[in-house]
């Protein structure tokens, strides 16, 4: 079942003021917010029976209020989260027991065709099809933990009729809430928890008084149900979204178990809640963690997700995170840590065509998921307020009902939600809407289930329609809808919204890692909310079509579960390597992958290693592996302080006696080369043979003429499975070519043997020469 994530959440409340009115004056108390306190875990005095007792005592040195303590962490982090004012936080920083104190970060959500598109519905009469079927059955031993907005447990996507008994090693549970009973869990949905203390603190406890924000695992948003079912939803026959995308809906690993951890609420996803969810998921025994959420770039020791993911990686848990929906802007990535698999979004070969015919006889193709009665067969007036940015964007309250009533309104894409623009037009009396892209979105088309007849068109069509409205004394338009079409070419195409590199936290690590399906994805939905999420949308549907890197992330999570079933002894790094080095870089027209933001060729800053290919990932031939100690050497090479490295690794004996001379020395499946004061960059890599015993791989390279590349040795001869061999790559920026300020260039390195092609993308940047 293909699934995706919401594009954004409302801005969070970072702090709040409590005003107490006394008889003669108004007193303003100190501002409190959530802080995460990193303790010297291994120095717990013997007088305290547990770390929780010790953490509580530490907090009591600055606060006597028991409600100040929100969480204590024991697995994903060593410390606790507390509600403090600035002075209290500063006092704790001076404590001998405390390594550091950090302000909580706030994160946002990144919002049936895909199994076939990814080759998972291969004919069961073939050897590939039989292997996929066997792995899907084997994935019953794999548990995917989804940190999101909760779950609609009643969805058919969580049917357990084909599932065996829950693995005895599972330590999770289903929580009880006013709207969620533990009996809703079963052999498919084996865990459901919620974490809200951070959100409650930031919102002043308001949500406990509002029915739509009950403290329970119940999904009132839809996003969490969509992502969980995308990763591991069961087969559901005759699924569709209001008649669109009809067929069999299923997740990537239909027999894998699902455990959901609700960490996202009305005002966002708070770091203290996320860390508590990761802490619990790791302790419960998940094998894969899927997080379709993220925030801005930050050093790894300040990144809640990166810190929790490091512990997960150490314990053999694969962590998949969405890259973000900040594209096509440069350096817009989230979740950049190298121990995380960072996923961008691409399109499917399925579309939902719709058409806008204007009065000069021209017709423009677009997309739509509108499912109503339409606007008839007669053209009506077309309105566009070019000179008014508010009304051209169709912002709330910006349209004049007298001007738009009974007409089609042309709205520019941007600033507010696409579906909200349609609501604004409808509320003003408009009959229909043409949603036209601007330069920011290019030719990317994302279908939405609008409340009125609406067609989304690309920038070029939008510009022509804008010109027509401006030049015609009586502009008109008629909208028509074409249902569902398959085998769209070209596909996949990198989504314009998908966040791009370079990696600003560690430029020597190329991100994103790869892309997966993330545009117009059908998956299960919460029946507590309409498909648009708008308050006025009273429609109920069991499935919804969504777009975002939120949708691409759980695809990779589910595929990782299949690889975990196929190779139970592989590390998370090995699984990531297999997914990356086997990814493809040509679309279904045999042309290089294209970028929807402009229509030109895509680059590894947009698509990473390429588009995931599950069949090839199952047998990659060679893998780039890394141990936790390698990641520690990487962190030490970033010149972090020992306490900062300890905050990430949770190890007390860090000395940084081993460090890379350059962070790019990490044994990563891709390369990011920075030419600065030197024209020569040299990296070594180690490959592990996971294919056949006697294997010889030859290297080929490609790239710009401005860089010379030499690989030593050019041939790797493996004699047995599990053998490790190293090679060195020397990159030389050629003399007389000054590319400083002219942008990046890209190439590739491939180790090949018969059917195996182990491909690594390379990015080049010139910072100074």
TrEMBL record:
GO terms for cellular component: extracellular region. InterPro entries: PA_domain (IPR003137), Peptidase_S8/S53_dom (IPR000209), Peptidase_S8/S53_dom_sf (IPR036852), Peptidase_S8_Ser-AS (IPR023828), Peptidase_S8_subtilisin-rel (IPR015500), Peptidases_S8_3 (IPR034197), S8pro/Inhibitor_I9 (IPR010259), S8pro/Inhibitor_I9_sf (IPR037045). One of its GO terms (molecular function) is serine-type endopeptidase activity. The keyword tRNA-binding does not apply. Coiled coil: none annotated. The active site is at residues 148, 223, 550. Residues 34-110 form the Inhibitor I9 domain. It is found in: Secreted. Residues 1-30 form the signal peptide. Residues 207-224 have a biased composition (Basic and acidic residues). Residues 140-588 form the Peptidase S8/S53 domain. Residues 382-464 form the PA domain. Belongs to the peptidase S8 family. This is Subtilisin-like protease SBT1.8. It comes from Protea cynaroides.
């Amino acid at each position: 079942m293909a699934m995706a994530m919401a594009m954004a959440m409302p801005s969070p409340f970072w702090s709040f003021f409590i005003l107490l009115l006394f008889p003669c004056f108004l007193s303003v108390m100190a501002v409190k917010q959530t802080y995460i306190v990193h303790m010297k875990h291994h120095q717990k005095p013997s007088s305290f029976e547990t770390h929780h007792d010790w953490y509580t005592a530490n907090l009591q040195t600055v606060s006597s209020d028991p409600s100040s303590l929100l969480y204590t962490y024991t697995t994903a982090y060593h410390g606790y989260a507390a509600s403090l004012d600035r002075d209290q936080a500063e006092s704790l920083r001076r404590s001998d027991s405390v390594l550091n104190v950090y302000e909580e970060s706030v994160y946002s959500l990144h919002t049936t065709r895909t199994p076939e598109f990814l080759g998972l519905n291969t004919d069961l009469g073939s050897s590939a099809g039989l292997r996929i079927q066997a792995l899907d059955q084997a994935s019953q031993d794999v548990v995917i933990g989804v940190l999101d907005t909760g779950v609609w447990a009643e969805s058919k996507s969580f049917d357990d009729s084909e599932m065996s008994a829950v693995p005895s090693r599972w330590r999770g549970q289903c929580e009880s809430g006013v709207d969620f009973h533990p009996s809703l869990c079963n052999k498919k949905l084996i865990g459901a928890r919620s974490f809200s203390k951070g959100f409650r603190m930031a919102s002043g406890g308001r949500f406990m008084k509002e029915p739509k924000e009950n403290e329970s695992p119940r999904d009132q948003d839809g996003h969490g149900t969509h992502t969980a079912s995308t990763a591991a939803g069961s087969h559901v026959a005759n699924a569709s979204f209001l008649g669109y995308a009809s067929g069999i809906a299923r997740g990537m690993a239909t027999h894998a178990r699902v455990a959901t951890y609700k960490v996202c609420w009305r005002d966002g996803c708070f770091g203290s809640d996320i860390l508590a969810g990761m802490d619990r998921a790791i302790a419960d025994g998940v094998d894969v963690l899927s997080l379709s959420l993220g925030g801005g770039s930050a050093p790894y020791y300040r990144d809640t997700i990166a810190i929790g993911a490091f512990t997960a990686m150490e314990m053999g848990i694969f962590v998949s995170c969405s890259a973000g929906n900040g594209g096509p802007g440069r350096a817009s990535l989230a979740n950049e840590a190298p121990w995380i698999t960072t996923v961008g979004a691409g399109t499917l070969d399925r579309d939902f065509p719709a058409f806008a015919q204007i009065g000069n006889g021209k017709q423009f193709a677009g997309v739509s998921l509108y499912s109503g009665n339409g606007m008839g067969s007669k053209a009506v007036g077309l309105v566009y307020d070019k000179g008014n940015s508010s009304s051209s964007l169709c912002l709330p309250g910006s349209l004049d009902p007298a001007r738009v009533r009974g007409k089609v309104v042309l709205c520019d894409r941007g600033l507010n939600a696409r579906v909200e623009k349609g609501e604004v037009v409808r509320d003003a009396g408009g009959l229909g809407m043409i949603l036209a892209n601007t330069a920011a979105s290019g030719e990317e088309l994302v279908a939405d289930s609008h409340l009125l007849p609406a067609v989304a068109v690309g920038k070029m069509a939008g510009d022509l329609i804008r010109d027509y409205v401006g030049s015609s004394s009586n502009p008109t338009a008629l909208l028509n809808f074409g249902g569902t079409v398959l085998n769209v070419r070209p596909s996949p195409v990198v989504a314009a919204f998908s966040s791009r590199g370079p990696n600003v936290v560690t430029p020597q690590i190329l991100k994103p890692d790869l892309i997966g399906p993330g545009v117009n994805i059908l998956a299960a939905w919460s029946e507590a909310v309409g498909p648009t999420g708008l308050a006025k949308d009273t429609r109920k549907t069991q499935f919804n079509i969504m777009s975002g890197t939120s949708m691409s992330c759980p695809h990779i999570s589910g595929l990782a579960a299949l690889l975990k079933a196929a190779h139970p002894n592989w590390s998370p790094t090995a699984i990531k390597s297999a997914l990356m080095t086997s990814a493809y870089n040509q679309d279904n027209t045999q042309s290089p992958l294209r970028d929807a933001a402009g229509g030109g060729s895509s680059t590894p800053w947009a698509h990473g290693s390429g588009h995931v290919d599950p069949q090839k990932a199952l047998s990659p031939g060679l893998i780039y592996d890394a141990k936790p100690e390698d990641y520690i050497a990487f962190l030490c090479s970033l010149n972090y302080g020992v306490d900062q490295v300890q905050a990430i690794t949770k190890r007390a004996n860090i000395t940084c006696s081993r460090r890379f001379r350059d962070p790019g020395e990490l044994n990563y499946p891709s390369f990011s080369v920075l030419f600065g004061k030197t024209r020569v960059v040299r990296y070594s890599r180690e490959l592990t043979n996971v294919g056949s015993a006697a294997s010889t791989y030859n290297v080929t390279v490609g790239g710009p003429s401005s860089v010379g590349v030499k690989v030593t040795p050019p041939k790797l001869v493996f004699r047995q499975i599990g053998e490790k061999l190293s090679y060195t790559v020397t990159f030389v920026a050629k003399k007389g070519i000054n590319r400083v300020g002219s942008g990046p260039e890209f190439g590739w390195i491939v180790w090949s043997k018969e059917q195996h092609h182990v491909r690594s993308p390379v990015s080049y940047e010139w910072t100074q020469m």
